[in-house]
Inverse folding.
């Protein structure tokens, strides 16, 4: 059978840097072809060239056997290529139908035909079995529904090749299931799907073939039946994965105690949350992003006002204290958003490392920061965590580090504080497998040393791999608590979606 | 090597701005019908042509530099202090009154006047900072509006209660200060005074503080990313208020040394008409808030002004030539700001979409 899409010898160079090196890729009719690879492996560049957003340095693209050149996304759309971006581009105040037909509205005598639009969307949704309510406003739709709107939009535009860019990152586990089903339906009805992801389980569930990229090159294209998740991971990383160290059983004293914590700002963001973290324990907070986890952490770390309730760190009441005071009391914090909270991108690696240490007596003499003494410490971190800093080393701008290396720097900085409690929020979001191993290992070692960690993550695998106890947050509340032994992906998924687990001891009232 | 490269890179933009400014000036000169080369030669002579002119340029650069340095500290912290003029005037009038009426020996009076100038300018500036910290009144606006309050109030003081009534013409000015409180001139008969040394010392001090002290680090990081600073435990309000105080204090010192070093009395308009404050702002922006850079950019801008006076004396090209060149510089600076902003925005976009 003829290939619907062929990309041959795609190469993209930015100056000295080769983002894509002779990448070839084919896509058949009715096929789901996953592209996997770590950050910086070249997935984005390849897709940007396919969608006409970048011009290839070399290589050619053929659609249905005919060579094409895309000068912009419009060209790509005209040739039946549709892209569903990771961040949706929808008008919240318009209805679902209006968002789908936008740019290609059914018209009569220059007037927009609202009814026709709705019925066209209706039939499209039935044909591909993508359930939506075409008259609902987008602002009232869930994230999963919004994603379906985006998919219908590219179908409406006549796409035969649908590119899904990390589509499951923002979804609940149940929504992920639905999406994977939708992808299968699309393929069965003759559409071709390119799935860009780093979640190998999803790949194994839905893809027909998988192309693995590493360092801008293809390390292999395999069909799903001939591979498994471990093989794919090896192909992505280029080596065997390490096993995490065993966890020592520790029965520690309570370290962080949160009692009846409320955060309100117009509406209730954190609703009567009570829990504790003990020495030698990792407590994981699972939940779909936006269910109060960020606000909870900000309240605990002093970045946000506590409306009601108490927070004790050790014996000390730290409710409503300043950030500096809480840090002083024994808290370090890997922030959720490393660019917003965790770094100053235009400052050097060294300056970024100094944050939180600038007033420590051991690095100060007569009011002057002892730069050279501190620099030696940073050198140690760089070595221990294998942080690739670039040509200027510690003087390199932090913004020039890759996401994974920057995250390792942040992790090193916060671990270096040697505090009894560490708050780790999305510690491996958007970092590659190598960096993830480092970070997980470091967290586990800290736990085994008798320190407490509060881990917040929207990745269930991370929560399950690290936590001794798991709390699930839903709409600002703790919806349930599970021990390590009783926790399963299914049970957590149900709680994350607002359900309750039968037999769970402390489900929300 | 890399550091040198970095420095050169940071110099390219101001130099380019100056060159384009001079080219635009050339158009103006051509329009007036004078020789371009000849006019710029006159300008060079007017600014640096003799020891006298050179020292006049240094004298003119003194308040610009002090104000620019103060602003560079505030801008580094991400605090947009636009109140340098009011802070300068507040410092100057307070220092003048102390120098006139404090019953103490001359030298003590001089030191007291200097300290008063710094404190008064600093407190006036702190007031705007307090309004933001306490009532969330935008500092950009409050500091700008407080200029009018300060300048007009000082104008009232010298035209009513503290006016010099001894002269025949009733000018809006205070009586003359006694000689013992005058700041010494650096060279006999030349206009540059000890205030210039204060400015150089302040530049070194600010450079040192930003580079080596925890406070300087916090100022810098607050300006780079306020969220990151808060996360790291930096007390934003304290850093902002401290920054505002010293920023205003240096502006106050600028006004004070003008009074004690050149006018020897507070004369209504003598500080505001030469636009010291706004030129200082420009010096800071042109130097990208680098304290050592401010030394050079304020010399440059002062030279442009004294040079233009030379041009006016000796050719038909009017004094406004300097304003034209300055206007182009401002355009360039704002273009750079918009460009940076634009680039940042695009980068942010790319990041949020490119997380594949």
């Amino acid at each position: 059978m003829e290939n619907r899409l062929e990309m041959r010898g795609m190469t993209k160079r930015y100056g000295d840097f080769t983002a894509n090196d002779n990448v070839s890729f084919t896509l058949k009719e009715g096929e789901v072809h996953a592209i996997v690879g770590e950050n910086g492996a070249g997935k984005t560049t390849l897709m940007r060239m396919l969608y006409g957003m970048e011009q290839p340095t070399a290589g050619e693209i053929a659609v249905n056997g005919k060579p094409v050149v895309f000068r912009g996304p419009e060209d790509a759309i005209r040739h039946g290529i549709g892209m569903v971006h990771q961040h949706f581009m929808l008008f919240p105040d318009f209805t679902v139908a209006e968002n789908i037909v936008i740019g290609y509205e059914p018209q009569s005598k220059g007037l927009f035909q609202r009814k026709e639009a709705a019925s066209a969307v209706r039939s499209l949704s039935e044909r591909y079995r993508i359930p939506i309510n075409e008259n609902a406003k987008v602002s009232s739709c869930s994230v999963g529904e919004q994603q379906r709107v985006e998919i219908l939009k590219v179908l409406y535009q006549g796409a035969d090749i649908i590119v899904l860019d990390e589509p499951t990152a923002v979804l609940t586990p149940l929504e992920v299931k639905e999406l994977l089903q939708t992808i299968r339906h699309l393929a069965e009805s003759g559409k071709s799907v390119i799935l860009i992801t780093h979640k190998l389980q999803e790949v194994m569930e839905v893809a027909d073939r998988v192309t693995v990229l590493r360092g801008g090159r293809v390390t292999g294209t395999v069909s799903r039946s001939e591979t498994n998740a471990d093989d794919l991971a090896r192909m992505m990383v280029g080596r065997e994965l390490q096993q995490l160290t065993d966890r020592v059983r520790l029965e520690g004293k309570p370290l962080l105690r949160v009692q009846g914590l409320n955060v309100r700002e117009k509406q209730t963001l954190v609703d009567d949350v009570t829990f504790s973290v003990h020495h030698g324990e990792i407590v994981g907070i699972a939940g779909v992003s936006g269910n109060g986890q960020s606000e909870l952490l900000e309240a605990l770390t002093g970045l946000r006002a506590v409306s009601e309730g108490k927070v004790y760190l050790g014996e000390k009441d730290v409710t409503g204290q300043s950030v500096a005071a809480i840090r002083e009391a024994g808290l370090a914090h890997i922030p959720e958003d490393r660019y917003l909270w965790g770094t100053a991108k235009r400052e050097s690696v060294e300056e970024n490392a100094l944050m939180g240490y600038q007033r420590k007596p051991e690095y100060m003499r007569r009011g002057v920061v002892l730069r050279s003494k501190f620099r030696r410490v940073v050198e140690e971190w760089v070595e221990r965590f294998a942080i690739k800093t670039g040509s200027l080393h510690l003087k390199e701008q932090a913004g020039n580090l890759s996401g994974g290396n920057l995250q390792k720097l942040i992790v090193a900085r916060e671990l270096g504080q040697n505090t009894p409690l560490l708050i780790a929020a999305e510690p491996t979001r958007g970092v590659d497998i190598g960096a993830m191993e480092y970070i997980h290992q470091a967290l586990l070692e800290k736990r085994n040393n008798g320190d407490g960690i509060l881990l917040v993550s929207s990745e269930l695998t991370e929560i399950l791999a690290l936590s001794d106890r798991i709390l699930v947050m839903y709409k600002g509340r703790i919806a349930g608590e599970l021990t390590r032994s009783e926790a399963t992906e299914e049970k957590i998924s149900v709680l994350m979606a607002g359900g309750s687990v039968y037999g769970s001891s402390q489900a929300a009232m | 090597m890399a550091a040198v490269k970095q420095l050169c890179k940071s110099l390219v933009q101001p130099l380019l701005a100056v060159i384009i400014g001079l080219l635009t000036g050339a158009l103006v000169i051509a329009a007036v019908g004078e020789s371009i080369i000849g006019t710029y030669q006159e300008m060079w002579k007017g600014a640096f042509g003799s020891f006298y002119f050179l020292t006049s340029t240094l004298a003119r650069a003194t308040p610009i530099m002090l104000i620019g340095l103060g602003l560079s500290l505030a801008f580094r912290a991400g605090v947009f202090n636009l109140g340098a003029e009011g802070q300068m005037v507040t410092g100057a009038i307070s220092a003048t009154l102390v120098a006139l009426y404090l019953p103490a020996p001359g030298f003590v009076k001089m030191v007291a006047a200097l300290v008063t100038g710094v404190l008064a300018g600093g407190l006036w500036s702190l007031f705007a900072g307090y309004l933001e910290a306490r009532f969330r009144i935008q500092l950009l606006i409050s500091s700008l509006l407080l200029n009018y309050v300060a300048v007009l109030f000082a104008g009232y003081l010298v035209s009513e209660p503290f006016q010099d009534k001894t002269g025949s013409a009733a000018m809006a000015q205070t009586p003359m200060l006694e000689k013992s409180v005058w700041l010494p001139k650096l060279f006999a008969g030349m206009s540059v005074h000890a205030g210039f040394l204060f400015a150089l010392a302040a530049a070194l001090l600010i450079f040192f503080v930003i580079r080596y002290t925890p406070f300087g680090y916090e100022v810098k990081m607050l300006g780079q990313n306020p969220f990151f600073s808060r996360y790291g435990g930096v007390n934003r309000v304290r850093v902002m208020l401290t920054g505002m105080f010293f920023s205003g204090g240096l502006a106050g010192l600028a006004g004070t040394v003008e009074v004690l070093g050149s006018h020897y009395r507070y004369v209504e308009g003598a500080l505001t008409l030469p636009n010291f404050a706004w030129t200082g702002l420009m010096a800071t922006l042109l130097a990208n808030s680098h304290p050592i850079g401010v030394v050079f950019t304020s010399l440059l801008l002062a030279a442009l002004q004294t040079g233009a006076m030379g041009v006016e004396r000796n050719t038909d090209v009017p004094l406004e030539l300097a304003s034209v060149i300055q206007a182009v510089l401002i355009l360039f600076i704002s273009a750079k700001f918009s460009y940076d902003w634009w680039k940042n925005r695009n980068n942010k976009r790319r990041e949020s979409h490119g997380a594949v």
User: Anything to note?
Assistant: Chain A touches chain B at residues 39, 43-44, 47, 85-87, 165-166, 196, 301, 303, 322-324, 327-328, 333, 335, 339-347, 351, 354-356, 358-359, 364, 367-369, 371, 391-392, 395, 403, 430 (CB under 8 Å). DSSP finds 17 helices and 24 strands in chain A.
